[in-house]
Amino acid sequence: MANASMRSPDPWIHGRSEALAGAPSDPFEVIARAYAPVQDEVDVEVPITFGAIPRDLSGTYFRNGPGRVSIGGDRYGHPFDGDGMVVRFAFDEGRVRYRNRYVRTRGFVDEQRAGRMLYRGFGSQRPGGLLANLGRTRFKNAANTSVLWHGGVLRALWEGGAPHRIDPRTLETIGVDDLGGLLRPERAIERALAPEHAFTAHPAIDPRSGELWGFGVIGGPRARLAIYRLDAEGAPIERRFVALPRLAFVHDFVLTERFLVFLLAPIAFDLARAIVGLASPVDALRRDPSLGTTVLVVPRDGGALRTIEARAGFVFHHVAGWDEGTREIVIDTLRMDDFEGGTIDVLDPAALRRVRVPRAVPTRMIVDLATRRVREEVHIDADVELPTIDPRRRTRPARIAYAVARPSGWSAISHPAIARLDLASREVHMRDLAPDLPGEPLYVPRPYAPEGEGYVLTIVYRAETHRSELWVLDARDLSTVARATLPHHVPLGFHGTFVPS
Ligand SMILES: [Fe+2]
Fold it and tell me: Per-domain residue ranges for the chain?
């Protein structure tokens, strides 16, 4: 078996990350070790250490996440600021080839050259106190949140800036991608501040048309939401702007057959404080008790938008959403009662111990467009994140979802379990892997088979070996079909995609 590692010639690589001796039993230590920076880039065939890769699993799995949260002696203030490292698993005839590569953003390259932190981030201030941050309006595009395959192009996404185009075979960074000009600001003053508008890490592909819908939040005195649409081949179709009632962090949205729906959380954002450098953006967020959640309903066809007030809640991810008749929209979302602001040093177990992350509970919201009311109830009593569904079910009623989960009694920030949620029967099946830590469980349906059959792919951090493994699970019951062991660990990451071959 060809198992030789091909090292990248890039000068920044200075050796393979060392396996750490001894396995910690404390979950906070496990999480801190799981975030240890990755120092090598490899291209290897990985050994199958359990079971066999199914022959009908054919294609490539890409996933993004922060490969490093420190440089030199400088630590980033939040895992959201970690430099994007894309991993790639190519499945072919039962074999798996693995590759990892950092996205060569301008910030990554500059900091690599300097050997220290140069940029501010979502939760990171530059070392050196106020003077080192005052007036620094350039933030690093971390390119770390997701990977998008659309129109034959692979992109690394980060919601605060433009995507980076990535070679799907080598994972080399091709460059910043403005989506055929869609992200280019109209006004020179805007271009001076940022050469491209932001593009979400959660765009949505309409399974019927193949069109891609995305958005970006544009700050400033009059906050706006940019909405973007590309055709199935990736050519730009449309860009429009919607006025926001307030500057809001919007991480995800719901695409139905008729609408785009955004939830604006009751968070006040002290933009001036963040921009001038007095605080990192995450430290400039405050819950505003006078506000509820605003539901913004934007018709796909360009009709008038509606805003409807709902109970205050905080959401990173939606699970599914669809139109129910002509007057209702159903949204299955992961609702938190509160939000966790502030910086997080994920390399420090003591700091991790202090972090309180509210439960994210599968909640059904029914938006009544006629009465302008929102009904809301807990749909499944669980604490889950990073949900995935059958991509063929997007815009329509989805039944089965997969997510990472925190079993009751588990208080640490990361999720040691995988859950299969039945949104119709409201049953949840959970598989607890503690002390190991799985990443996003990506559902890969088997072609022509019903929803909920096929495979779930996840990258699991193994506490005992300080290595990560690719796990292939049976989508029906989360039993293990196969495991492949990587030559190093992959820090806990965010989102991925599967491209069938
Ligand atoms: Fe996300």
Answer: 27-500
The distance in angstroms from the start CA to the end CA of the chain is: 22
Distance CA 419, CA 385 (A): 10
**Domain range 27-500, CATH architecture:** 7 Propeller (2.130)
164 is in an annotated binding site: no
Nearest-angstrom CA–CA distance, 330 and 328? 7
CA of 302 to the centre of ligand 1 (A): 26
Q: Residue 23: pLDDT above 80? A: no
Contact residues for 213 (Cβ-Cβ < 8 A; gap 6+): 203, 204, 205, 206, 227, 228, 229, 255, 260, 300
* Residue 3, pLDDT above cutoff 80: no
pLDDT of residue 21: 54
Q: Does 202 show up as a binding residue in the annotation?
A: yes
Strands in 373-378's sheet, in edge-to-edge order, are: 314-324, 328-336, 361-368, 373-378
Please name the residues in contact with 171: beta carbons below 8 A apart, sequence gap of 6 or more.
86, 88, 99, 100, 101
CB 158 within 8 A of CB 145: yes
Beta strand 328-336 with 361-368: parallel, antiparallel or unpaired? antiparallel
Identify which has the larger pLDDT, 338 or 2. Answer: 338
* Model pLDDT for residues 321-334, shown as the tens digit of each residue: 999 999 999 999 99
Q: 465 with 115: CB under 8 angstroms?
A: no
- Sign, CA torsion 453/459/460/462: positive
Q: Please give the backbone phi and psi of residue 474, each rounded to the nearest 5 degrees, phi first.
A: -75, 125
Residue 251 assigned as binding residue: yes
What proportion of the chain, given as a percentage, has pLDDT over 90?
A: 79
